[in-house]
Design a protein that fits this description.
Helix 4 crosses helix 7 and helix 5 packs antiparallel against helix 6. The protein folds into two domains: 101 residues, DnaJ domain (Helix Hairpins), CATH 1.10.287.110; 108 residues. The chain has seven helices and no strands. Helix content is 62%, strand content 0%. The chain is elongated. It is mainly alpha-helical and 236 residues long.
Length: 236
């Protein structure tokens, strides 16, 4: 099974026969299902390197194969301990697949797993290049809400919000393209360092992860703007 740089998993021996299981789902010696290794990531769950541009069709096939192998129905005659492991593994499998099948959540997960991105909501600051547009948007939103409350015409305000929505959606598309480029750079860096055999230096990885985190923060802010305008227009 692949081991990620800086996030190597701790593989305990098989609980049944004490053979080395190398972090796998089943013991290669006795075939018993195993607990998830400490430090294992969703990538290692699928026996994948920590790349960001995955073959999503291959990921789905792997998911379906593991779903069948780990399904609790296969352990109805096993011990209670093994049935519990099966339930845990099946739940972890679903979580891992939901996360890795989407490009954005895949990047968010990698950064979170490596300690670059923190779990939980954080207050996002408006990107400097959007300050003027955000100010104008807030004015339009206030005017829309006031006009609606007073029973006035909102046609012109709707048109302004539709235009703002299109503008922010375009910026969101640009940020997504920037994120895809950064993901491609990550994969290329990973492959280069893996080919060198030594893992390469940590500094390039850390710099790229910091950049991806900043892009994600910008994306989150712009996406919230798009959603805010959509919600407001839905009430008009």
């Amino acid at each position: 099974m692949s081991v990620e740089p800086q996030t190597a998993q701790t593989s305990a021996p098989c609980w049944s026969c004490r053979a080395d299981v190398h972090g796998g789902h089943f013991c290669p010696s006795c075939g018993r299902i195993q607990a998830l290794s400490e430090g294992a990531s969703y990538f290692t769950f699928f026996d994948l390197p920590p790349r960001l541009l995955l073959d999503e069709a291959a990921l789905e096939r792997k998911f379906l194969q593991l779903s069948w192998k780990l399904h609790p129905d296969n352990f109805v005659r096993a011990s209670e301990f093994e049935r519990t492991l099966s339930l845990d593994r099946a739940s972890q499998l679903n979580d891992a697949y939901r996360t890795l099948r989407e490009p954005i959540t895949r990047i968010e997960y990698l950064l979170t797993h490596r300690g670059v991105r923190k779990d939980g909501a954080t207050k996002q600051q408006a990107p400097a290049e959007l300050l003027e547009e955000v100010f104008e948007l807030n004015e339009s939103l206030d005017e829309m809400r006031s006009a609606r409350a007073e029973g006035g015409s909102v046609t012109d305000l709707q048109q302004r919000l539709v235009a703002a929505q299109k503008g922010f959606q375009g910026k969101l598309d640009d940020v997504d393209a920037e994120l895809r480029q950064a993901a491609a750079e990550w994969d290329k860096l990973f492959e280069t360092q893996a080919a060198e055999g030594s893992g390469g230096g940590a500094a390039p990885r850390e710099a790229l992860m910091k950049r991806m985190n900043e892009i994600l923060n910008r994306r989150s802010y712009i996406r919230n703007l798009v959603n805010t305008v959509q919600n407001e227009l839905a009430q008009a």
